[in-house]
Structure formats: C-alpha cells, structure tokens
Amino acid sequence: MKLVSVETPEKSVCKMTFSATAEELETASNAVYERTRASYTIKGFAKGEADRAQIEADRGEHTFWYDAINDLMDRDVPALYDAAMQEHGFHAVDEPSYDLVSVKKDEGFVATATTALQPELKLAQTTGFQSECVTPAVTDKEIDAMLERRRAAAAELVPHKGPAVKGNIVHIDYEGLLDGKAFAGGTAQNQTLQLGSGRMIPGFEDGILGHKGGEEFEINVTFPAHYHAKDLAGKPVVFKIKLLDVCVRQLPALNSDFAKKIGKVDTMEAFREQVRKQLYDGKHASALNRAKDQILTQLAAAAEGELPSVLVESTYQHEMENIQQQLQMQRMSLDRYLSQIHQTRETFTANVHAAAEKNTRARMALLQVAQNENLVPTDEEINKNLQERADRTKKTLEEVKAGMNIPMIQRNEAIRRAADWVIEHSTIEEKDA
Fold first, then answer.
1. Is 429:131 a contact under the CB 8 Å cutoff?
2. Do 177 and 241 meet the contact criterion of CB atoms below 8 Å apart?
3. Which regions form coiled coils (predicted)?
4. How far apart are CA 194 and CA 4, in angstroms?
5. Quick one: average pLDDT of 89-105?
C-alpha cells in the first residue's frame, strides 16, 4: 500500500488517502481464502472442499475482499499514517476514522483516514474563575427513607406456614414441559422468587398463590407471543412445581440493637446522626463536582477558536451511545424516555450536540493549558504507571502496552492534570442551602 495524499479539508482536520494495487488486493484475498476456506459450505461440496473460484461463484467475487482490505490496512497503514503525521507536524486528538472510497478487482482499492487535529484556541482566561458550591440540607424525611432501606436490607426470611400470598418469598423446584417433554431452560432447582415481582412469564407467579410449603402441583401457562425464544413464543406449557417453602421478610425494629448491629453505634439518635452525615457528604460531593464543572464551563467559554467538526461529531456520537446503553439497561426506548421528559427528538439531539461541543471545547482548552503549564506526562511517567500495572497482572511492559493507546492515555492524563490545575487556581465558595 502507499500514501496517495494528505489534505486539510478544514482547519484542524487531516484527511489522508491510501491505495492498494490490484495485485496487493489479490494476494491478500487469496491469503484470506486460505485462512477461511475450511469454514465454507457450498452446495455440491463437502465443507471446506470448494476452491476459491467455486466459493466466489456461489457467494460473489467480493467474498474475500473486505477481510483482505482490513488485513492490508492493519499491516501497512499505521506506519504510513504515523510517518505522515510526523512529517507534517500534525498532532492528533482523536483516533482516525476510516472510509472505503472504492474497490475494484482490476484496480485495487482506495481508502481514507480522517483525523481531528489539535486546534489552536485563544485562551482569554485560564485562572481566577469563580463558582459556588451550594450543599442542600438533609431532611428528616431523607434520613427516615435511608433507615428504611437499611432496615429492608437487614430483613430476615422467616418460614410461613400459611398459603402463599403476593410479597412472600418462595423457594421452588420446577420443570417446564412442552407437549409432555422438558424444554431447554425450563428446569431449575431451589430458585428464590418473590411473588408479585413479575419476574416470570405471566401466570407463573399467580399459579403459586394459595399453595403451602411442601406442596407439589402443576401450572398451565402460555408463553408471550413475542417471547425471545421463538420455539416457545405463544406456546402453552405445563410447569411441575415443588414448593419447598414460603417465607415472609421480617423487618428488624428500629431500636438500639439495630443501631449497634448496622451502624456500630449505641443509640438510634447516634445512628440517625451518622446517616445524616453520610447523606450530607454525598450531597456535598455532588455539589462540589457541579461547582468544578461550572469552572470548566467558564474555561470553555473563554476559549475562542474553531473546533474540528469531526471531533465534535465523534463526541456527540459517543454521548448518544452512552445514553442508549443507559436506557437499554433500564429497558426503556429513547422515544419513551423523550415522552417522559416532554422533549422532541430534534430538541433532545440538539441539546446533546450542544453539550458535546461544550465538552470538546473544554477538553481542547485543558489540553492547551496542560502544554502551556508543562503538565503533560512524560513517556517515563507513562511507562512507570504501565510497569506497575504489568507487575500487578504479571505481564511484561510490552504486553501491557500492546493493548493500549498510549497517545490517548497521555492526552487524558494531561487533561485531568490541567483540570485540577485550573480548579486549584480558581475560587469555589462553599455554602449550605
């Protein structure tokens, strides 16, 4: 492969174009074929017996191209890219994004790498910012709620001789049968289940209600039509249940014994004070972080200059991915979340994009501060930290470094140090609400 051109389509953005000849693509494609041929099953041939021409006739002539392109890019581009960056004196602040421009059997392929470069910002101010750290008061209601959570966590399961009702904790063995035969994933022993939790498929928990510990019985239920296991979706099944026991959660009394056991103090008054301080410390930490963020926001506002659009876009995409992951963990769609906060998708994404622009400007300003104030970690410091990690994991330094992006680690540490420096040279006024 070779480097074709280096361009700056906009300020603080570098675009490199690379190309590979038809011969290079063919050689790499043949290497991919040799490496993967055993995995192909082609009609009329035993698995792994079809040759390259037969596989391409069945799957298309491009079958091995894209793995071949990746192999060539991984092998040749890093060295070409690094040499070009050094030759032009460019300083990347993000990983390059790659795009395949064209690929033809008789011409080879062309690809580009687009990289955000460090912008030159005019820093009107880097010290002397001011913000307030306002810590809200802790209410008795909040203390009561925390004590109830501690109480619930300390609850003990006590056997119950009566019939099971919602809220009870039961331990069960069960076996699911579809058309009289056990199905995968339908059998378990000594499973703990809180009745009414909705953890099991509809009808399962209701079928246990009214039964006593030691009973064995059957439950007839139907899997939801959209159940993830397609072979069970919408199917009626029978669960054989052995109800091992029925338990109730017995909450401890809020007295001195509880204070001694959970809070390690002698009285409930002392325990309440302990909880009050814990809640206050948490609120203060959050308020202090907000005050620090305000200082960094002021730094961003004082940093004038054009940011590389690809870096802002990369930050925006990362923020959106984080939001989507958080919503998935809560089993909530973005549309449902937007309906709850009464925002349109357009307004929401515009706000996220504005935040990405502000965060990017702050990070680039901090990187510039780090360079101006000699806060960028040296190679020796980075190696020392990585050597400590290597020692902990019983690996060599080279093994640890092989799986890491050293320039990114260096940038992130420089930005962290600069943030501490700016905050130390600013004023945070602490107040209680």
1. yes
2. no
3. none
4. 65
5. 94
Cα torsion angle, 156, 157, 161, 164, sign = positive
Give alpha helix (H) positions in 193-333.
256-258, 268-301, 309-329
Both tokens of residue 392?
């902990």
CATH for the stretch 156-250: 3.10.50.40
- Alpha carbons within 13 A on the beta-carbon side of 57: 8
Taking the CA atoms of residue 209, residue 215, residue 221 and residue 226 in that order, the dihedral angle to the nearest 10 degrees is 80
Rounded Cα–Cα distance for residues 235 and 343 (Å): 39
- Beta bridge partners, 267, equal none
**Candidate from 37-46, 268-277, 301-310 with smallest mean pLDDT:** 37-46
pLDDT at 48: 84
Classify residue 344 by burial, with Cβ atoms within 10 Å: 0-12, 13-18, 19+: exposed
Per-residue model confidence (pLDDT) at position 418:
98
- The candidate with the shortest Cα–Cα distance to 100, out of 72, 60, 79, is 72
- pLDDT, tens only, 344-379: 999 999 999 999 999 999 999 999 999 999 999 999
CATH superfamily, region 2-117:
Trigger factor ribosome-binding domain (3.30.70.1050)
Give me the residue spans of the domains in the chain: 2-117, 156-250, 262-432
Query: Was domain 262-432 assigned CATH 1.10.10?
Result: no
Tokens describing residue 356: 């990405």
**Residue 41 pLDDT level (bands cut at 50, 70, 90):** confident
44-70 pLDDT, tens digit per residue, is 888 888 889 999 999 998 999 999 999
Contact between residue 194 and residue 168 where contact means Cβ atoms under 8 Å apart? yes
Q: For residue 17, what are the contacts with CB-CB under 8 A and spacing of at least 6?
A: 3, 4, 5, 6, 7, 101, 110, 111, 112
Spatial CB neighbours of 202, under 8 Å, sequence gap ≥ 6: 221, 222, 224
